[in-house]
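Title: Prediction job returns without error message
Component: structure pipeline
Severity: low
Priority: P3
Assignee: unassigned

Description:
Job completed but the reporter wants confirmation the result is attached to the right record. Sequence as submitted:
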Amino acid sequence: MLKERNSVTREGVEERTVLDLLQRWEHTDHPLRRRDLADDPLEQFLRWYQEAQGSGLRYPNAMAVATATADGRPSVRMVLLRGVDERGFVFYTNLESRKGRELAENPRAALLFYWEPLERQVRIEGRVELVTSAEADAYFATRPKGSQISAWASRQSEPIDSREALERRHAEFAERFGSGPVPRPAYWGGYRVVPDAYEFWQGRPDRLHDRFRYERSADGIWVITRLQP
């Protein structure tokens, strides 16, 4: 809950001061035990993802993607997961965006899924690689035409004078492509995060949450460790 109070400045003008952001609730008691976990973290992720799909969430595939520059300055944003298999977790974007530039110089990322109705989080860390051109072409072809045109109109993360200027660019590309197919821009593609660590978090009462981390050993075996909350 946002709490505010009125304070008086030296000029005698009242202004609102934020005191705190307090919204507390108790987690339900749904334990996550070691025996509940799959030996393979991808299998465990897919189990939880299927349950998230059935929970009423509009975007169970929404995830935060954290990247960093070569000198360690981080940034994070929400994107949509567009593919997952034993090779990794895939999302698509403008390769010249801020995240694209950071991944070019520091090809590692962290992902976070938060499924509030289930009181669950999944964290994933790993190296990042580009998907193939064929994969990017195939996915781009499935996008609505308006979204395809937006990929041409928007130079993601770059400044623009106004919303009107952006809409003019969109209209220009819509006229350019007309009723024909829209090709994928060369600067638009996909990234695959290849995990070397997962963490599964289940909310529990009194903040004594259950946390389990999977890390791949040198011989390729996933080792599971319980972490303190």
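Comment from assignee: result matches the submitted record. The radius of gyration is 22 Å.
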